[in-house]
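Format notes (please read before filing issues)

Several people have asked whether sequences and structure tokens are stored in separate files. They are not. Every record keeps both together, in the order shown below: the sequence lines, then the token lines. Line labels are part of the format and must not be stripped during preprocessing.
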Amino acid sequence: MKTSSKIIIAAICVVVVCAIVYRAVNTTPSKSMPADERVAKILDSGGCIDCHTAEPSLPFYANWPIAKSVITKDIVDGYKAFDIEPMLVALGSGEAVNEVDLAKVEKTVLDGTMPLAKYYLVHWGSSLTKKKAAVLLDWIRDHRARFYPNTLAAPEFANESVRPVPDAVEYDPAKAELGYRLYHDTRLSADGTISCATCHGLNTGGVDNLKYSEGIGGQLGGVNAPTVYNAVFNFAQFWDGRAATLADQAAGPPLNPVEMGCKSFDEIVARLSKDRAFVKEFTAAYPEGLSQATITDAIEQFERTLVTPNSPFDLYLKGDKTAMTADQIKGFELFKEYSCATCHAGVNMGGLSYELMGQRADYFKDRELQEKSGLTDGDNGRWAQTGIERDRFRFRTPGLRNVALTYPYYHDGSVKTLEEAVSMMARYQVGEELTEEQVASITDFLHALTGQYKGVTLVNDNMK
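Then the structure lines:
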């Protein structure tokens, strides 16, 4: 046999062996497995745990001179973008996976961006085959239908990562009426000058449109005031997530020395107790009487009414194709294309996860260069509550509902216009430089997120 023929036969044998090995290591998990277990196995075999966890399992060559820097960077970047551990825990317990985690995995599968090509070269079993991708996408669709049913949307939009705002959520009308009055009552502040509505005006998009809100004695807060509208849909309250519920959030400002300045709720109760008519009405709804728990519950009941359904986007999702303009529809597609709909998922289009400010570029370094302003306590974000280094500069994502009314933007209130906010988000979070046309389309789409409160489209009196 000629040498050339031997080489050809040997090459064919190598290809066949490689194909057999590839097929063996990339076999799709059996359909007989429970769905969640099947998905967990795909994520495991795909190497997701190798980069997207706090304690990655490093390969034997991880400390080799050239490999070390590459592997370290991939692991650091991967963990910054996505911690897969909560998703795996949910899969193991049969509980709901966070909507943002679902959206991130879905986007990655659709784009085919993971696993990285360089990772796959030395980890054949990590390949995300078409069959595995189909299993993941089908599971995501079914998981959403089970835990986050999108019953208000038209069938074609039922599997979107974002959902229409419902017309209402459950609340107690009598308690909500008391909460409305307390929300506007300056007696919750030490000097009688500040109410909840001072910083979260219902006629100004649920915010005050200031970089930092002004508390008692003219003191300024350290972060921009988030909107109170649709806050009921957030998984935690405040930029750093220090309040689990709306009632917990309502308890914060009255005792904050910069905001409302009370020493305790006892002094608030004492002031309100002098109002006999109010006490009579209050005890009718709360027989246990005035206390921190009942006052903050009443405010929560009121804030549960602050949902803003029937924006043009909501109507579009419900099937009205004329509710948004062609450019707004284009903006929605760009919003999804550039991964905005991953972190800004759910009913409120945000408020469901803590994300790093500056995923793809150093936001704080650039801010310091441009504004000559260094880091503040407010910049620490979630780290202030956990002390975990990964949480530094990580914030609860803001909901985008009514975002056209809630300027200035970001946790530091440093961005004045929506156009600038869109452009900067693409640069710092996605690593993309959008064109002026793309920015205009996405901005136009965001204007379509302005909803209705009590049947009337929200307006901001500061913008008149």
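For reference, the curators noted about this record: The two ends are 89 Å apart (CA to CA). DSSP finds 21 helices and four strands in the chain.
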